[in-house]
Design a protein that fits this description.
five-stranded mixed beta sheet, alpha+beta, Glutaredoxin
């Protein structure tokens, strides 16, 4: 499976888990990963995990995970799952959509 793990601290299971779907190393995909990492560093302080899935390598995952646009990020944990599409540059929108406000 084409998943790149980027664990941001804990040896234990992180409190927050995200999966970022991209299609190669496009500027939007690179920006989305950088923005998500930045948001996690500021708001989740080492309690998060980011999995990056490149749909160019595993296109079937787009269908099975209902991904219609990239980059897309899915908050997998805590439940319920939340999804947002785009480069995640609008921090307020990302915080609201993924329920990351404290």
């Amino acid at each position: 499976m084409a998943i790149e793990k980027n664990q941001e601290a804990c040896a234990e299971r992180p409190e927050w888990s995200f999966r970022l779907y991209v299609a190669g190393q496009t500027p939007r995909s690179v920006a989305a990963l950088a923005n998500l990492k930045h948001i996690c560093e500021i708001h989740l302080k080492g309690k998060s995990e980011i999995d990056v899935v490149d749909l160019l390598l595993t296109p079937a995952l787009a269908t099975s995970n209902r991904i219609v646009a990239v980059p897309s990020v899915v908050r997998q944990f805590p439940s319920p799952a939340k999804k947002i599409v785009g480069n995640l540059a609008n921090m307020e929108r990302v915080l609201a959509r993924l329920d990351l406000r404290s």
